Structure formats: structure tokens, C-alpha cells
Amino acid sequence: MVDTSEMHKDDGLSGAAIRANLGGLELPNLRIEVEGEIDSTNAALKRRAVSEDLHGLALFAETQTAGRGRLGRPWVSPPKCNIYMSLGWRTGLEPLELAGLSLAVGCVIGDTLECEWGLNIQLKWPNDLYLVGKKCGGVLIDLVHSANQGWIVVVGVGINVAMPGTGGNDIDQPWTDLASHADVSLSRNALAGQLLGALVPLLSGWRVNSFSQWQESWCRRDLMAGHQISVQQGQHTISGRAEGVDPLGALRVATQTGLVAVQSGEASMLRSTKL
Length: 275
Ligand code: BTN
Description:
Blueprint: H1 15-19, E1 31-38, H2 41-48, E2 57-64, E3 83-90, H3 101-117, E4 122-124, E5 128-131, E6 134-146, E7 150-159, H4 188-204, H5 215-221, E8 228-233, E9 236-245, E10 251-255, E11 258-262, E12 266-269
Parallel strand pairs: 1-2
Antiparallel strand pairs: 2-3, 3-7, 4-5, 5-6, 6-7, 8-9, 8-12, 9-10, 10-11
Helix pairs in contact: 3-4, 3-5
Bound molecules: biotin.
Residues 40-42, 64, 67-70, 73, 75, 84-86, 127-128, 138-140, 156-158 line the site of biotin.
């Protein structure tokens, strides 16, 4: 891995610079905050839900001391090189009505990184962002209920932008960063603004069954489609060929006994060649 951090020095995230990159969107109700160091942007927003209106609050951090990934895994978050952000949103929907939202978040991030920076992002079900077969980011959606706000969605996004030389040493799987694959120097403020400018319309337009509109977009970026996979659900393993996702975002697996729609679990590819 080339140490790209020196080539992509930036002056730090700033709310004003992020707002200047929203792509011309006037979003007066969007509040953007930048913290130097925090445990986890998702955890911080969940704490604040008790006493504050989280709707439209975007929290960025330069570093996280206890960043979290899916299934309680740590999210390695070295300072001033990547994006760690969480956006609070009140959709007015119940948790079950949000099926597929986290996959759609992956799709809009993929589209944004491709349109703005020419990066060919692939998606690994349900929430992983990949570049050249290695993980470069992830999405973690938490839900928090408060008496006066109802259900609030906390959309957490972590993206490796320009990982310093030893910054990724603790990551326990093949990984990469955007800077290693971009032709131009990346600006984190620009990236952050562009991502928010794509996420806010997605969230504000989200309705029951919205994922069906994203199903095709997901399939275009699907890392596992056609590969032999296994999905671990606690003690239970489902094995077969990945066949994309259904209109609710469940993973379709063609097993020996028929097609199964998997709602949750940890998927791994068994072979690198397509069947
Ligand atoms: C995953 O791939 O497992 C999801 C990773 C999500 C990481 C982001 S970084 C910002 C936000 N705060 C966290 O603690 N986690 C998410």
C-alpha cells in the first residue's frame, strides 16, 4: 500500500467548507458540526437524541476513539485523513418500513464517488463499500427512539480517504483508500459536502418500499453477484450462489434446495471466480 497521506494533505474539515460543497443545494435546516475527537459519531448522536432534535444534524469527526462497524466491530479511525460522519434524520416511518435504506445509502455513495471522482465503487451486501476488491468504507445505520421525536435514523458513514502508512495496520481484512485509486487530489471537505448533498435528498424522499427504485443500481455495483458465498447467521450457515437483492434489500441466495431471501447475517465469498 502506497502511503498517500503526504500527497493528499488537507487543512482539516470545516463546516463552512463542507456546506460550500453541497452541490448548490440550499439546505438551511441542515446543521453541520465538526469535532476534533469523539468516541463515535453514531454513539454521540444517539446520546444527544435524549435532549436534542437530531433531524438534519450532520456530525463529522477528525478521529474516533471508539468507532464502530457492523456487528460491534471496531472501525479504525486515524486522525485527519478519512471521513467519519453521522447524519440524524426523522423519517416518520417505523423500523420495518426502512428496509433497504442502508443499501440505498451505499448506492448513493457509490454514484457520488463515481460521478465526482471517477471511482468505480462496488457494494458488498449489506453495507460495505469496495474498490478493486478491497474494502474502502462502510455504512452503519442505528435507530434511536425518543419520546417526542419518534424513531430517528442515524446514518453513519466511514470512508478511507487517504489512510496514513501505519493507520490501517489494525484493520483485519484487505482494505484500500480512495486516494490510491483517484487520478486527482481528493478534498475531504468536497467529498463530505457531496456525500451530504446526496444523502439528504435520499432520506427526505424515503417512503415505504423505496428500495425497489435502487434495486437495479445496487445490482450494477454488486460485488458478490454470481459468486459462491456463505452467510453466517449465528450458528446457522446458508451456502449457495449470490443472486442479487430483492425489492426489500434481502440478499438472494440460490441454495441446493431453492432460492432463499436472507435478511441478515455476515456474507463471505468462497471463491473469487464467478460461477
Ligand atoms: C461497517 O462497515 O462495518 C460500517 C462502518 C461504519 C463506520 C462509521 S464511521 C462514522 C460512524 N461512527 C461509527 O462509530 N461508525 C460509523
